[in-house]
Structures are given as structure tokens and as C-alpha cells.
Design goal:
CATH topology of the largest domain: Beta-Lactamase
Largest sheet: 5 strands, antiparallel
Structural class: alpha+beta
Strand content: 15-25%
Radius of gyration: 29 Å
Enzyme class: transferase
Keywords: Kinase, Transferase
Strand order of the largest sheet: 4-3-7-6-5
GO molecular function: kinase activity
EC number: 2.7.13.3
CATH architecture of the largest domain: 2-Layer Sandwich
CATH superfamily of the largest domain: PAS domain
Organism: Oceanidesulfovibrio marinus
Distance between the termini: 41 Å
Number of domains: 3
Number of helices: 11
Length: about 400
């Protein structure tokens, strides 16, 4: 019979009963009345997630209104005494000879693990997959469950929060499939146009090169959105390799010179830009610089010049990249520039400057900032250590 330390740190252990043991009806009624007459129950009914309170035998003594509504239960007393899997109709709950938590498949159940760890450590969070036969047949759910131990009137309980993440899981799977298939299709068309360009007569080659550039830009946009999604969900990992700063700037400049945002505008590279070998993720740094340059180009009208460059801070062993355009931002724009959905270019925009900050600071261990004043224009800066540091995101 496993023992668990008490939440107040005293020497008295907490005994967790065997998985199959259940509380008697008198104990369940007493615990239910003890809890539902207290302040915590009233608070938990306001929570949007599903919330249960379990006793040490993993039986429900309280369920908040959202959970009861999800199951279609009107009388809260109908759920008291059940275990979470039994209340949800989990297939595994009917396989064990003593109910939820006693079947072989339950040994790998994230809910059971969270409950045990919650009593043992005080809190725990896990994901759990549940299959059940609902009103319309077989249903599958992905839940994120969190367990927090509660000491109330000299008894131990567990506040068990359940969040339905089924849609989140499905969306992420579909997004991966979508990006993969879309990239294969557009990338294949780009390669086909590139192959045909060499076979076409001169009078058609210019048009073919323009089509190739369109597909190239499409591939770049798809890669950018895929990378940003991975960054936001924590699935992105930096891959550090040597990079020459001036070569990187030249590559970014060349890549955008024929882009629509650069039409009738000049991109200039400062001749005195530092030539430094730095260890960083070439792809992520390139994305940051591309978005900095795009942002500057979009802020200018035809005939203006956007300038790129970088300096090396030898004392701090850091490289500072910069992109300048002659137009200053308004005070309102400056206050919101790095917010996720803010844009001066209309609805459904606002990802560019947000991604600059997200990638530069969270995954590359750098800092970004800007200056913008009338007469001086706007300059965005991105500063990174010459070599990766421990604080950089993995």
C-alpha cells in the first residue's frame, strides 16, 4: 500500500488505498456535503473547464456544472461515487474487474497517472486519450488533465481539472498534413517551371522566370507560416551552424529585390557592414531579417531607399543587424508594433513584426527593438550573441 507525504509537510503519511477499493455510501455522502457547502464548490462552478473533486479512492464527490452539462446529467447526486473514467464512459472502465483504473490498459492512462502523482507530489498534468460509446456511436477524445491536492477539514482530496483538447490535436495534425502536401505541390511546380525555363526559346524565357519567382515566393510564404506555427506551439528547435554576416545580408537582399514589396524601391547594403562569422540558426535569422526588410519596404512608397547593415560589438561579442527606412511611425503604431494581430495594413495581417520578436528572442536568445522619429525615419534592430548561449530557446 503506497504512502504519500501530507501536504503540510508533517511526518504523518497519507495512505492511498488500493486501486480497486471504494468508499462506503456514508463516507461519500459526508464528503459531498462537506465540500458542496463550502466556498470552493461555488468557485469551481464558475470555471469554464470540467472540474471534479476526487477523494482518496478516486471517486467523484463533486462535479462542476460544465462537466454535468457535458454528460447530460441534471442531478449532481447521480455522479457521486463514480470514478472519472466511469463518468465519461471510457471503454477501459468496463474492462477492469473493479472498475476504472483496474484494467491492464489503465496502467498507461494519463488520468490515473495524474491522480496518483497529484496525491504524491501535490500537483500533476498529463494528457489522456479516451474512447467511449456515446449516443452516436464510438467517440474519441483527447483531454489534458491537471490534478491538485486539496487539504480540507483534515481530509485529503484532489481537484481534477479536465480540458478537452480534441480539436487542438486534430487541428495540429491537419495543419502538418496541409503544409506537407501544399509544400510538395507548390515546390514541384516551381521545380517544373525551372526545368522548362532552360528549354524555352528566349522570347518566352522571361515570362517563365517570372512564374518561377512567383512559385518561389509562395514556397517562402508557406515555409514562413509553417515555421511560425511551430514557434508558437513550442515545436521549433534551433539548429546552430556557422554563418557569415555579410553573406547573410546579401542573400536576404537578393531574395527580396524582385519581390512585389520591393517594386520601384531600392534596397541598399551599407558598405561598412561587419563581416563576422557567427554561430546561429541560419534559417531563423534569415526569417527575422526578411520580415524586418519586408516591413521596411511595405512602409515606403516608390522611389525610396531601404538600407540594411550590421555591426559587431567586440566587447559583448554580439552582432547587431539593422534595417532602416525613411518614414517614421505614428505614436499609436509604435505602442502596438510587436503585438500578434496588430497591423497598419488592414485586417488579417500583423504577423511579420510579431514573428520578428518571437523568433529572435525566444529561439535565438537575442533582443529586438526599434527607433522611429520624424526626420530620422525608422530603424529596426536585432541583436544576437556571436555564439549561442544557454538562455536561447531550444
Amino acid at each position: 500500500m503506497p504512502l504519500f507525504a501530507s501536504p503540510d509537510g508533517s511526518a504523518s503519511p497519507i495512505e492511498l488505498p488500493p486501486l480497486g477499493q471504494r468508499s462506503d455510501d456514508f463516507t461519500l455522502k459526508r464528503q459531498k456535503e462537506m465540500f458542496t457547502s463550502s466556498l470552493p464548490a461555488a468557485l469551481l462552478d464558475t470555471v469554464l473547464s470540467f472540474v471534479l473533486v476526487l477523494n482518496k479512492t478516486r471517486q467523484i464527490i463533486y462535479a462542476n456544472k460544465n462537466f454535468l452539462d457535458f454528460l447530460g446529467i441534471e442531478d449532481p447526486a447521480d455522479i457521486v461515487g463514480r470514478r472519472p473514467g466511469e463518468a465519461l464512459g471510457c471503454e477501459g472502465a468496463t474492462e477492469g474487474h473493479l472498475g476504472c483504473g483496474t484494467a491492464e490498459r489503465c496502467l498507461r492512462c494519463g488520468a490515473l497517472t495524474a491522480i496518483v502523482e497529484g496525491f504524491r507530489k501535490g500537483e500533476a498534468t498529463h494528457e489522456v486519450r479516451i474512447s467511449r460509446h456515446g449516443p452516436e456511436g464510438l467517440e474519441a477524445f483527447d483531454f489534458r488533465v491537471s490534478a491538485t491536492r486539496l487539504h480540507l477539514d483534515d481530509e485529503e482530496f484532489l481537484v481534477f481539472a479536465v480540458e478537452d483538447i480534441s480539436n487542438e490535436k486534430r487541428r495540429r495534425i491537419l495543419e502538418r498534413i496541409f503544409f506537407h502536401d501544399l509544400m510538395n505541390t507548390v515546390g514541384g511546380l516551381r521545380n517544373l517551371v525551372e526545368y522548362l525555363t532552360d528549354e524555352l526559346p528566349d522570347e518566352h524565357r522571361k515570362l517563365a522566370l517570372m512564374i518561377h519567382d512567383v512559385f518561389k515566393n509562395m514556397v517562402d510564404e508557406i515555409e514562413t507560416q509553417k515555421l511560425l506555427l511551430a514557434a508558437e506551439t513550442g515545436d521549433l528547435h534551433a539548429n546552430y551552424l556557422p554563418v557569415i554576416t555579410r553573406d547573410l545580408l546579401l542573400s536576404v537582399k537578393k531574395g527580396l529585390e524582385n519581390h512585389d514589396v520591393a517594386m520601384d524601391k531600392e534596397i541598399r547594403l551599407d558598405e561598412d557592414s561587419a563581416v563576422v562569422s557567427m554561430i546561429t540558426d541560419d534559417s531563423l535569422v534569415r526569417r527575422v531579417l526578411v520580415n524586418m526588410l519586408k516591413n521596411a519596404l511595405e512602409a515606403e512608397s516608390g522611389g525610396n531607399t531601404v538600407t540594411m547593415g550590421c555591426t559587431y560589438d567586440e566587447a559583448a561579442e554580439a552582432v547587431v543587424f539593422r534595417v532602416h527606412n525613411p518614414t517614421a511611425m505614428s505614436s499609436d503604431v509604435k505602442l502596438q508594433i510587436f503585438q500578434r494581430s496588430f497591423s497598419t495594413k488592414g485586417l488579417d495581417r500583423g504577423i511579420g513584426t510579431y514573428s520578428i520578436k518571437l523568433l529572435a528572442e525566444r529561439y535565438l536568445g537575442g533582443t529586438v527593438w526599434f527607433t522611429s522619429t520624424p526626420g530620422e525615419g525608422t530603424t529596426f534592430y536585432a541583436r544576437w550573441p556571436r555564439r549561442p548561449v544557454a538562455t536561447a530557446g531550444e
